[in-house]
Amino acid sequence: MQADFKELNDRIAEIDDLNRIQSLLYWDLQTYMPPNGSEARSSQISVLSRLVHERVTSEQIGKKLEDLRPLVSQMDSNSSEARAFVKIDSAYSKLTRIPVEWVSEFSRLTTRAHKFWAQAKAENNFELFRPYLENILEMRRAYSGFFTPYEHIYDPLLDDYEPGMKTSDIKEVFGFLRVRQVELVQAISKCPQVDDSFLYQDFDEKAQWDFGLEVIRKLGFDANNGRQDKSPHPFTTRVGAGDVRITTRFDPGFLNSALFATLHECGHALHSLGLAPEFVQTIFGARIGPGSGGASMALNESQSRLIENLVGRSYQFWQYYYPRLKDYFPAQFQEVSLEDFYKGINQVKPSLIRVEADEGTYNLHIMLRMELEIKLLEGTLAVKDLPAAWSEGMHDYLGLVPPNDSQGVLQDVHWSAGSFGYFPTYALGNLVSAQIWEKILQDLPDINDQIRQASFEELLGWLREKIHRHGTKYTAQELLISLTGSSIDPNPYIDYLTKKYKQIYRF
Amino acid sequence: MQADFKELNDRIAEIDDLNRIQSLLYWDLQTYMPPNGSEARSSQISVLSRLVHERVTSEQIGKKLEDLRPLVSQMDSNSSEARAFVKIDSAYSKLTRIPVEWVSEFSRLTTRAHKFWAQAKAENNFELFRPYLENILEMRRAYSGFFTPYEHIYDPLLDDYEPGMKTSDIKEVFGFLRVRQVELVQAISKCPQVDDSFLYQDFDEKAQWDFGLEVIRKLGFDANNGRQDKSPHPFTTRVGAGDVRITTRFDPGFLNSALFATLHECGHALHSLGLAPEFVQTIFGARIGPGSGGASMALNESQSRLIENLVGRSYQFWQYYYPRLKDYFPAQFQEVSLEDFYKGINQVKPSLIRVEADEGTYNLHIMLRMELEIKLLEGTLAVKDLPAAWSEGMHDYLGLVPPNDSQGVLQDVHWSAGSFGYFPTYALGNLVSAQIWEKILQDLPDINDQIRQASFEELLGWLREKIHRHGTKYTAQELLISLTGSSIDPNPYIDYLTKKYKQIYRF
Fold first, then answer.
1. Which residues numbered 296-335 in A keep a CB inside 8 Å of some CB on B?
2. Among candidate residues B493, B224, A260, A82, the one with its CA nearest the CA of residue A246
């Protein structure tokens, strides 16, 4: 039996190798690839996608699973072997439902769609993107069809990113969250606005880079195990166990852009680097099928949000780092007190662009997207009517109407990549980050004092031990329940925001 | 039949995609990969090597070749189809002789050997590397054994890099070349030495980078189709048809190091980028099996040497570029005339390190290596006696004895990679570059005037039309004979050197 498990794992390791290579192909595409490399790159990515799909769904894996099934049924279902078996089995039975032709065609379609989305966004012309989005939507409907029966057509898509969660679960969470979050934004809107104009000054790129690097080094992102580069859209990718890469971008006229992206991606990188060595190149660390490493996208996102917001937008963090920041930008912050700086980086103000949204309004952007995605999939909204529905929804959720589609429905890359079902995990990640933070405050009562001294070892140790090291061994729900006693719960996040904003806005 | 050819070519295209991905894995390894990424990377490279080997030697390709063979035998043997068939057929029959276990083990062995070679070189301790080199040599003997009968045990190795050439051919060429080249070095050694001390000053890295980039842009290496990065050992790699990358390195105290490496790699890149669009992802452009793209390594090397030396160390080139170089480094060259600069960069002086050798002595370094490789393979020299044989040979060829093994037998990476049979192609490349240059002087009689004005369009156009566009459609010998009427001939190179050095050293 050990030999069978080993053989199964050797196949997983090989698939992991191919997926990590794929990660490097994407990383390079976004960072260093010359413009005319794109045709060869999309061919390379498509070949590798097919090889991976063929391998994950190979008869040899199916056979090995059938050989092991009776043995596993007699094992402790919590043993690592049994859990590994279940994970591989469910990935296999999920992916074998997807025809390889669908995989190839979807890869080709989304590669082309990305190009037309970028052009549509640049030229503010939704019509350029519309036919591609229509095709993507059709292919996504077909995809859900591979997983009938389902409770809701959105469920199979969601399951790729948030395994085990149903559309109905999220609707329930968001239903509650929306009411509370809108209340909070309204309460803030009645208070005098805090000043953040000092964040919009000239900030030398090199100094921004150096300050960001100083912070993430201290947080525990080590140059031996990863690197940071520039790309248009910040992201984190795991190229290998000791090779996790983040990217950031710079706005020379706005400090937050690079700073919080760097902290966000650092949170992802620390998560990825924390995988237990014994799980490297096993199913608990391997990326198989859609989604990513980590127990779920919401859990992943909780780790980036925790570093970006719970740590990186906290008062105690800036008690240490604001003087350092002033060393890099003495002229810009000469007249700005720590208190004003802290308030400025936490300003709440409804805005058009999701990635620039503050903690108070961010989730509202997500809810709009999920609502539209569901209507599109259900067929109650046609793609041609999407821009109007977007504007209406923005007005509804945030009281704003975008002046054009580039700043509206075309702003995000996700739909061009066919990533329906992904957005909700961003909001869930925010909720989970606050749930985990409550637990950290219990387990490490002096954590705020430690942060005040830029001492992050205990925090990182806790995250590694409780979350990072397990990879996908436990589901996100299992992890969260074992840590906090509860599944995803919006209350801690609302409590955290309310407490923070009451202090800042004095309502 | 068209459908059969298409299917065969689709398989070649897929193999090419996988090989280009492999190129990116190596490029990244040498440029940006963080130190702890090496374990995952060697696993990724090994998986991909196996996949490629399995595909090239697959039964489907064998079957398709057998289906097509009778049809091809009735075709014009010079047609593109027939030539493509022969190339695929010979790659297939060569690679199917190599057991996949040998491929995997050799990949594992050389990955480990590289590490111990690097350590041995750093610590000046040949013994650390010796056992690995012994194993590599044994595996290389076994490799030649897959190709029995052969005229000489070195032939199958040489054939990987210089298809169709025999050890006896090269011995004949080198026998003649050695006598003439030693005569030339001796004649020079009797003349007063030219000064090159001005090349050893402080040269700001950024200014070196900018000057180099200015030159290669003008030569035709376009930022849309490639990029330049830094790496410890300069190299060129083709990641895709519009994505050819070069690397260089900088010595802040020696101008030549980056400058001529940059020109050299630019020559390779222009060659690679010149492939006819209709040959992209066909056997004429694909990399299959050992060696590289291009008709042969000697032909490849002729293209880099032509740019580096025939163009880049010519007087007319510096008539244009020396004033530009002085703009970058005014203080360093204030007192140095164009004539003295030209003489300095062409100084001939026996030295220990191959990659730093001048045109006058370079080939002697190669001859020594080939002589030792042949003895090792024949079994007339044991690995343990290699350092002593090296020192003796250096004395014999160049009148120098290395003070230690790091500057002697351990200096080159090639043997740690198992690349026996590769070195001779460097010297052959020098010879071919001079043969091609003679033809260029006939076809473009005012080429030197054009170079004097940094006008390289006609030169690049000629190289593209006559050489680059053909990829591997013709063998190096065929190309050379059709261009110059002769196979590899050392006379043009000796004539070129003699004329140049007589003018510089006045003998």
1. none
2. A260
Nearest residue in A to B240, CA atom? A40
Residue B117's pLDDT band, with cuts at 50, 70 and 90, is very high
Distance from CA of A14 to the nearest CA of B (A): 7
CB B225, CB A34: distance < 8 Å: yes
pTM over the 0.90 mark: yes
* pLDDT tier for residue B252 given thresholds of 50, 70 and 90: very high
> What tokens does A371 get?
């609502």
- What residues form DSSP beta bridges with A244? A226, A238
* Own/partner long-range contacts of B222-227 (Cβ < 8 Å, ≥24 apart): B223/A34, B224/A34, B224/A35, B224/A36, B225/A34, B225/A36, B225/B273, B226/A34, B226/B269, B226/B273, B227/A32, B227/A34
Closest by alpha carbon to B233, among B267, B271, B264? B264
Q: Is B101 a catalytic residue?
A: no
Between the CA of residue A69 and those of A81, A84, A159, A357, B78, what are the distances in Å?
A: 11, 12, 24, 48, 58
A361-377 residue pLDDT tens = 999 999 999 999 999 99
Q: Report d(CA A362, CA A376) in Å as an integer.
A: 22
Q: If you average pLDDT over every residue of chain B, what do you get?
A: 95
pLDDT at A292 over 70: no
What are residue A226's DSSP bridge partners? A244
C-alpha to C-alpha distance for A164 and A479, rounded to whole angstroms: 13
Nearest to A43 among B17, B38, B39 (CB): B17
CA atoms within 13 A on the CB side of B248: 29
ipTM, two decimals, is 0.94
Contact state of B243 with A14 under an 8 Å Cβ cutoff: no
pLDDT score at A293 = 64
Cα gap B196→B71, rounded to integer Å: 62
Beta-bridge mates of residue A230: A248
Note the Cα B93 to chain centre separation in Å. 25
CB pairs under 8 A between A and B: 109
Which of B14, B32, B40 shows the shortest C-beta gap to A242? B40
CA A442 – CA A466 distance, rounded (Å): 14
* Integer Cα distance of B398 and B366 in angstroms: 11
At A104, the pLDDT band (50, 70, 90 cuts) reads confident
Among B14, B123, B205, B265, the one annotated catalytic: B265
Q: What is the Cα–Cα distance from B355 to B249, expressed in whole angstroms? A: 13
pLDDT digits (tens, 9 = 90+) for A25-50: 999 999 999 999 989 998 999 899 88
Backbone φ/ψ region at B501: left (φ over 0), alpha (ψ -120 to 50), beta: alpha
**H/E stretch holding B432:** helix B423-443
Cα–Cα distance measured from residue A304 to residue A270, given in angstroms and rounded to the nearest whole number: 9
* Mean pLDDT for the stretch of residues A232-260: 95
Show the domains of chain A with their CATH numbers. Answer: 2-153 (no CATH), 167-505 (1.10.1370.30)
- The DSSP H or E segment spanning B230 is strand B226-230
pLDDT exceeds cutoff 60 at B466:
yes
- Token pair 């032939």 is found at B155
Tell me the pairing of strands A236-240 and A243-248: antiparallel
